[in-house]
Specification:
The protein is an alpha/beta fold and about 220 residues long. It has two domains: about 130 residues, Rossmann fold; about 80 residues, Regulator of K+ conductance, C-terminal domain (Alpha-Beta Plaits, 2-Layer Sandwich), CATH 3.30.70. The protein has eight helices and eleven strands. It is elongated and about 60 Å long.
């Protein structure tokens, strides 16, 4: 898996959880916040920790966000700072910017200034979001308990034209395929003889220790 560079701007509860999870997953993580104590706490939980006033354009630009694959704007209360961070990140050419928004109105505003995806902290935990960001093969991640999880994943190129029976994913890769969906159609149970297509998405149950199989 290609190692990604991610900047997490704002170390509230969600930002801290997300940054720490991404770092544990082996990503290069830059964190920025105005709180000196939070930055000190993240010295060994991130690749780079920078004290920064995220309401000041010059300070945001000094973070060298143009080197990042992903920028996550994780502030919860300062909408003006969130707008500025999203705008600067997109102007600097960051390919993917996520922004935290607690209301539909804020989500609409942040999309208009360039956010590629909105994070709702009531629905998305930091750990779940980190799992999705860390692997292109995980579209959605759902905790079942401390051992099991469910993921949505695209059909891999080498699986196209082959059936579940042929692939024997449960034995070979510990992946228990529960259902399949074509494009925007509803989920259906998998016919073991059905040949997969590249337009399909799979719902898979697996133990968390086996997540490396889809990284």
């Amino acid at each position: 898996m290609e190692k990604k560079s991610v900047a997490v701007l704002g170390l509230g509860q969600f930002g801290r959880s997300l940054a720490e999870s991404l770092y544990e997953l082996g990503m290069d993580v830059l964190v920025a916040d105005q709180d000196e104590q939070l930055i000190a706490d993240f010295a060994d939980k991130s690749t780079v920790a920078v004290r920064c006033d995220l309401s000041e354009e010059d300070e945001i630009k000094a973070l060298s966000l143009h080197n990042m694959d992903i920028v996550i704007v994780a502030m919860s209360t300062d909408l003006a700072a969130s707008i500025l961070c999203v705008s600067v990140a997109k102007e600097l050419g960051v390919p993917f910017v996520l922004a935290k928004a607690s209301t539909p109105r804020r989500a609409t505003i942040l999309r208009r200034v360039g956010a590629d995806r909105i994070i709702d902290p009531e629905k998305d935990s930091g750990v779940r979001t980190a799992r999705v960001l860390a692997s292109p093969n995980i579209l959605e991640f759902f905790d079942v308990d401390e051992n099991l999880c469910l993921i949505e994943m695209p059909v891999q190129k080498e699986w196209v034209g082959r059936s579940l029976k042929e692939l024997d994913l449960r034995r070979r890769r510990s992946l228990n395929v529960i259902a399949v969906r074509h494009a925007s159609f509803p989920w259906i149970f998998v016919d073991p003889e059905h040949p997969f297509s590249e337009e399909e998405t799979l719902l898979v149950a697996l133990e968390k220790k086996e997540l490396h199989a889809v990284q």
